[in-house]
Design brief:
Elements (H helix, E strand, L loop, with lengths): L3 H8 L4 E4 L4 H4 L6 E4 L4 H13 L1 H19 L1 H16 L1
Parallel strand pairs: 1-2
Helix pairs in contact: 1-4, 4-5
Amino acid sequence: MVGLAALEALASGLALVVSDIGGLKDIVQDGQNGYRLPAADPVALANAIRMLASNPADVERMRVESHRRAIELFSWEVVTEKYVNAITSCLD
């Protein structure tokens, strides 16, 4: 399951910092559109925040990739196709 806040951040084109759990690991490609960290690792969290704060060019690249990934995974066209396929498979 993916949290709504993470999806909204992705769609807003933000660089995400998430724990490597659940559906979050499916939407954040580590180093591409944010950072996936081990759960309950405050040192890794601090390091990721430092990386983002000190590398504005990386943040901008991650922002663009987040927005692209949101469209790739969650655009109306993609979600509609997934629903149609799910319903169709139930009817077969």
